[in-house]
Design a protein that fits this description.
With 282 residues, this protein is α+β, with helices and mostly antiparallel strands. It is 54% helix and 17% strand. It is built from ten helices and five strands; from the N terminus they run αβββββααααααααα. Strands 1-5-4-3-2 form a five-stranded antiparallel sheet. A hairpin with a 2-residue loop joins strand 3 and strand 4. The radius of gyration is 34 Å and the shape is rod-shaped.
Length: 282
């Protein structure tokens, strides 16, 4: 018994009278932090008389505090049931000695295993990123499908006419409605550009497949592959839809500004187009 007590005292001195390590904490948007989870309390005390617990130390890599990776560092000892900013390292030989003396469970594995909570908290960010990527991919695939369907409805017109029709459909959807006057204007412009007759049902099908909130990439696509003059034609056709009443509401103004940016046309030139259009006799 005296021998065991002596060994226990020797173990305490060997383990805990050395230098404490500080747990690394979360920092910037991207970084790492160390965390401890409780394995088992013990009767071992440090040199301050605090009871220590056996803990599993892990390191988490995070983005905006969302864990994207967690790795196991190993066993450590820490006060307050592992809720601490500091800990004592636990080398393998001292772990085995602690098991032999009964301070630790005899069936304790040489390397700690991550708990389900560790796994969830350490990798949920990867799951969230995967879900976002899947949703973004599905959204992009849906947009691509609707674009092909709109172009199929428009027929075999040249690219400039197709993209002008596409821009007009999106412009009409910018204010959330499509009235008879807009349908008539679109039908006339479409016939002039394509030589085809567009009835109301066909225009409404194209309109229904337009995006309610086009992205910057879609605004740029309205002018992709077109000459400067063809881009102006796209803008003029769109202005005839949104500015038929001689005025632009907030949603229509935002749409035209984004379209101008996507087409690479200056705001001053767009204003001049609109003024010339509204100045012409009906």
């Amino acid at each position: 018994m005296r021998f065991l007590s002596f060994c226990a005292a020797a173990l305490i001195i060997a383990l805990f009278f050395g230098k404490e390590a500080q747990a690394g904490r979360a920092g910037d948007v991207w970084g790492t932090s160390e965390q401890m989870t409780l394995i088992t309390p013990t009767d071992i005390e440090d040199n301050n008389g605090q009871n220590l617990s056996l803990c599993h130390l892990t390191k988490k890599t995070h983005i905006m505090f969302a864990g994207v990776w967690r790795s196991s560092i190993g066993y450590v000892m820490a006060p307050n049931k592992c809720d601490s900013d500091s800990y004592y390292n636990m080398p393998a030989d001292r772990l085995e000695l602690g098991k032999a003396l009964g301070d630790f469970p005899s069936d304790l594995p040489a390397q700690p295993k991550m708990s389900r909570a560790d796994m969830v908290s350490g990798f949920w960010g990867l799951g969230a990123i995967a879900v976002l990527l899947i949703l973004a991919g599905a959204k992009k695939a849906g947009q691509s499908k609707r674009t092909k369907e709109r172009y199929a409805e428009m027929g075999t017109a040249n690219p400039a006419a197709l993209q002008a029709m596409d821009a007009m459909c999106h412009a009409a959807k910018a204010d959330g409605s499509l009235d008879a006057a807009e349908i008539s204007t679109m039908a006339n412009i479409a016939q002039q550009m394509t030589g085809e007759t567009f009835d109301e049902s066909r225009i409404r099908r194209i309109y229904n497949m337009a995006e309610a909130k086009p992205t910057d990439a879609q605004f740029a696509a309205f002018g992709r592959g077109l000459t400067a003059d063809q881009k102006r034609m796209v803008m003029q056709a769109t202005l005839m839809i949104v500015g038929a009443d001689g005025d632009l509401d907030k949603a229509e103004t935002v749409f035209i500004h984004k379209l101008a940016k996507g087409l690479g046309i200056s705001v001053d030139e767009v204003k001049a187009m609109f003024q010339n259009m509204t100045a012409q006799p009906a």
